[in-house]
Design goal:
Layout lengths: L3 E6 L4 H5 L1 H8 L4 E5 L9 E2 L2 H18 L5 H6 L7 E2 L2 H14 L2 H13 L8 H10 L4 H11 L2 H17 L6 E6 L2 E5 L8 H10 L3 H5 L16
């Protein structure tokens, strides 16, 4: 059985953005399957407020320090001051499902979504923005738009429910969470020691040392919770 890395994420999870270089490194070595958990979907969607901005800014600063991932002025000084904006995970997760259905490129779109949100300050819950970003990575805009309409409803809600069920099955508490599936079964991976070190993560995946060898060097959990990011 070819090993598969399962990646439980949310497009609006800051730590998932921090882990993006690890995902990129892993994809060069083995299949990666994404599971969008809907951290800010449904009743958990959030309007931008001064309180939200005050909460996320120190959180983002810590992610930037540990991961090296940049946070742009358009996000920090623009989007986080735009009280008409709404953070909603469901549309971008649906967009990933559409990108996978159209061209098997859901994770490529996720990387573009994260840069659009955290660097460019764009509203990644807006349909027009999602269509623009899909076109930017080379997807057929009409095919993507049609497929997105079909995905943004029962299909994405079912996907989120399945991702949450997988979290319970694995005993993980938030995003990002990783598990390696191979002939021996499923093994959770703590990516804390690898944050900001994608080459070391790739080396570990190549050697596939026992997960316990990594756990011995665990840093504090670097995750967003199931319904919100915590510092």
């Amino acid at each position: 059985m070819t090993p598969t890395l399962h990646y439980i994420h949310d497009p609006l999870c800051g730590w998932c953005y921090g882990a993006a270089p690890l995902v990129k490194a892993a994809r060069e070595l083995l299949p990666v399957q994404a599971h969008g958990g809907g951290m800010m979907a449904g009743p958990a969607r959030r309007s931008v407020t001064a309180e939200l901005r005050a909460f996320v800014l120190p959180h983002d600063q810590r992610i930037e320090q540990l991961s090296g991932q940049p946070f742009g002025a358009a996000y920090r000084d623009g989007l986080l001051n735009d009280t008409s904006a709404v953070f909603d995970s469901q549309p971008p997760i649906a967009a990933m499902l559409a990108a996978d259905a159209v061209a098997g490129r859901g994770l490529d779109l996720l990387a573009r979504l994260q840069a659009a949100h955290y660097v460019e300050g764009r509203r990644i819950a807006d349909r027009a923005v999602l269509e623009e970003l899909a076109a930017e990575i080379g997807l057929d805009r009409e095919a993507f738009a049609t497929t997105l309409c079909a995905a943004d409803g029962e299909a994405v809600q079912r996907h989120i429910g399945q991702a949450r069920a997988l979290m319970q099955r694995l005993g993980v508490q938030g995003f990002p969470s990783f598990a390696l599936e191979d002939a021996g079964g499923w093994r959770r991976i703590d990516i804390g020691p690898f944050m900001g070190r994608p080459a070391e993560f790739a080396d570990w995946l190549r050697g596939q040392r026992p997960v316990e060898a990594v756990a011995a060097a665990n840093a504090p959990a670097l995750q967003c919770g199931p319904d919100a990011c915590a510092i």
